[in-house]
Design brief:
Blueprint lengths: L2 H21 L5 H22 L17 H7 L7 H20 L5 H20 L6
Length: 132
């Protein structure tokens, strides 16, 4: 995916996350789970592509983050704040399936999930990625 496609996808996910927060987290649990996960990966890919760390044709997948060990095996290259960044999608992925496919979760659980996502977004924003 090219850089502009990543930006467009991130904007779409951010819009849906914000809309879901406004409409009520309890009503949009699946949307929150899916879009925080996919946007996290898109932000990482945008960062890596923008900085020439990986080829434009290389794809990062959300399931790379099922564990920190697996993520580090898949992301063999170095980049700024790598360990700090990797931990956050791993935390998102650890909760993703329960939000997308599980029973309704308490509001606090969902707020914590969004908080993890916002930490990751802030890191990328602070690094000049401009995620949206």
């Amino acid at each position: 995916m090219n850089i502009e496609s990543h930006r467009r996808a991130i904007r779409e996910s951010l819009e849906l996350i914000n809309e879901s927060i406004q409409r009520g987290l309890e009503e949009r649990q699946r949307t929150i789970g899916f879009h925080c996960s996919v946007a996290a990966v898109d932000m990482l890919e945008l960062f890596l592509h923008s900085n020439g760390i990986i080829d434009p044709g290389k794809t990062i997948k959300h399931d790379f983050f099922t564990s920190e060990r697996k993520a580090l095996e898949k992301l063999t290259f170095s980049f700024e704040k790598k360990h700090e960044i990797v931990k956050l999608p791993v935390e998102l992925e650890s909760r993703r399936n329960s939000l997308c496919y599980g029973r309704p979760m308490p509001r606090q659980y969902m707020m914590e999930y969004i908080s993890v996502f916002n930490k990751l977004k802030k890191i990328f924003d602070d690094m000049g990625v401009g995620c949206g």
